[in-house]
Write a structure and sequence with these properties.
Rossmann fold; alpha/beta; globular
Length: about 230
């Protein structure tokens, strides 16, 4: 990759910090898997620990999406049999019944100009295409409220998501009860900082509304995964 291409890739990333770990959000994972069916997507999977953690919890297909070439290579080295993609357009529309975007749609530390609401909305449009009607979307530590986007207003509704235990693994940031949607600063669609109470009120979980004109897509994801 050329120096210019590397710079462009970095500029296009949502979250430019690679930190991740195995079993980061155990109760969130368990409860989301129990409430859904179908393939699972780790959106912004970094070096693949989230994918491998989810694969340890379910026999359902679990795929990873990572825009950073270096991290994508690390995914494939650590998990040679895994299915990983670089851009959403490489995946089949309407495939996934569950998607996690955990500490991905954000910059930290950062300001709204580092990751704008328009960028957030564009990524949410690209993620939405991959989810089947009725799918569950878990958004942790986004810098914006998904409810402010046209995508959410047209096709999603927030759903309750209550943790029984909390405080497990990286869930130490997730108290029992309603965990909120993360500890990072949140901003309005006009880039005004939300207060602590407003930030805590941003939902964690969204369900894609069902439609009458949708049919399951044939998918080749289990055999694909090109860069």
């Amino acid at each position: 990759m050329t120096e210019d291409a590397e710079k462009q890739e970095k500029d296009d990333l949502c979250q430019d910090a690679p930190h991740t770990a195995m079993h980061h959000y155990p109760e969130i994972f368990d409860r989301a898997l129990a409430a859904t069916q179908g393939p699972v997507l780790s959106f912004g999977c970094s070096t693949g620990e989230e994918v491998r953690s989810l694969k340890a919890l379910t026999r359902r297909p679990v795929h990873g999406l990572e825009a950073c070439s270096e991290r994508l290579r690390a995914c494939r080295v650590a998990d040679p049999s895994g299915v990983y993609f670089k851009v959403p357009e490489q995946l089949d529309a309407g495939t996934y019944g569950l998607a996690f975007a955990m500490s991905v749609l954000c910059r930290y530390p950062g300001a709204p100009e580092d990751f704008t609401f328009d960028q957030f909305g564009s990524w949410m449009e690209r993620l939405d295409v991959l989810l089947r009607p009725g799918a569950l979307l878990i958004l942790w530590n986004a810098n914006y409220d998904f409810r402010d986007t046209a995508t959410c207003k047209e096709r999603y509704e927030a759903v309750p998501f209550v943790l029984v235990h909390g405080g497990q693994g990286f869930d130490s940031e997730c108290p029992a009860g309603d965990p909120g949607s993360g500890f990072l600063p949140k901003f309005s669609s006009t880039h005004e900082a939300l207060g602590e109470l407003a930030s805590r009120a941003v939902p964690l979980a969204f369900k894609k509304r069902c439609t009458t004109d949708w049919a399951p897509q044939e998918t080749a994801c289990a055999s694909r995964g090109s860069a």
